[in-house]
Specification:
The protein is an alpha+beta fold. It contains five helices and ten strands, in the order H-E-E-E-E-E-E-E-E-H-E-E-H-H-H. It has helices at residues 10-16, 93-104, 127-133, 141-149, 159-167, and strands at 23-25, 34-36, 41-44, 47-53, 62-66, 71-73, 78-79, 82-83, 112-114, 125-126. The longest helix is centred in the middle third of the chain and has 12 residues, at 93-104. The chain starts with 9 loop residues before the first helix and ends in a 5-residue tail after the last helix. InterPro entries: Metallo-B-lactamas, Mito_Persulfide_Diox, RibonucZ/Hydroxyglut_hydro. Pfam families: Lactamase_B.
Length: 172
């Protein structure tokens, strides 16, 4: 999950946990210990996560699926009743729409979704809920593109510091 706000903490985590390893998409353009691509498996203990590339918010967005626990971690590709913005850092609304529908919303309806950001106090959603209730993704692809191209969001306050740090494995 290549995110300007969340991944920047990697540098601090490395200090606190010296054995920690960072993971990024091969498409991120950033520095990390390990790079993943679509279909890779990340194994830890008796668990594993399937990597699904979900570009559109950024080229390097990935989602992680636990089939055993029926859950997906979507970063900013899919948010609760929203999705990641597409107006900077390689964003593309058409690519995001296809990524979310092909790689995330194609999972079984009972899968639980954990997102990278939540602004409303809701901690999780489900594939079924997002298919039915997401005001952007319940639209056609062309309608989605129009919505995303007309959001006119403010430029993120810390983005000019966070992006270079992200590309350098969280080191400012």
């Amino acid at each position: 999950m290549y995110m300007p706000i969340t991944l920047t903490g990697t540098g601090m985590l490395r200090t606190a946990f010296p054995g920690m390893k960072s993971v990024l998409s091969v498409h991120s353009g950033g520095k990390a210990d390990h790079f993943v691509k679509d279909g890779d498996k990340i194994k830890f203990g008796h668990e594993s996560l399937e990597v699904r590339t979900t570009p559109g918010h950024t080229d390097g967005c990935v989602s992680y699926v636990s089939h055993a626990h029926k859950m997906v971690f979507t970063g900013d590709a899919l948010l609760i009743r929203a999705c990641g913005r597409t107006d900077f850092q390689q964003g593309n609304p058409r690519t995001l729409y296809r990524s979310v529908w092909d790689k995330i919303l194609s999972l079984p309806d009972d899968f639980i979704v954990y997102v990278g950001h939540n602004y409303n106090g809701i901690l999780q959603t489900s594939i079924d809920e997002e298919k039915r209730l997401n005001p952007r993704l319940t639209k056609s692809e062309d309608e989605f593109v129009r919505i995303m191209e007309n959001l006119h969001l403010d430029y993120p306050k810390q983005i000019d510091k966070a992006l270079p740090a992200n590309l350098n494995d969280g080191v400012i």
